[in-house]
């Protein structure tokens, strides 16, 4: 399932890479996130997940009538895990990448968490 997800993400994001070279960072983070395994979750990851799990844009928090076909598509590709419906990333994976930040910025709202810099 992870390989299918990675390949799908590479194809979809690859198109954006042509238009925006910064998309390469996204591709790198998506792939990297699938290979980070930790027994103990650091506090900064737990804090990020708490924010995401309570967010109104979390797939599981949206009313069924507000979910789009795109939301369901990405929910399936993300292994039916909790996901952000703004960036379509799986919360479990995105929150453990230090270089990532909350996607609320993409829709003009104040972000709930930022790049981790220790």
Question: How would you characterize this protein structure?
Answer:
This protein has 118 residues and is an all-alpha fold. It has one domain. It is built from five helices and no strands. The longest helix has 18 residues, at 2-19. The protein is globular and about 35 Å long. The model has no long low-confidence stretch (mean pLDDT 84).
Low-pLDDT runs of 5+ residues are none
> Can you give the helix content as a percent range?
40-55%
Distance between the termini: 33 Å
Total tally of structural domains: 1
What pattern of helices and strands is seen along the backbone? HHHHH
Assembly annotation: single chain
Explain briefly what this protein structure is.
This protein is mainly α. It is built from five helices and no strands.
Key features?
5 helices; mainly alpha; globular; 118 residues
Describe the protein's topology.
Blueprint: H1 2-19, H2 23-33, H3 43-53, H4 69-77, H5 91-94
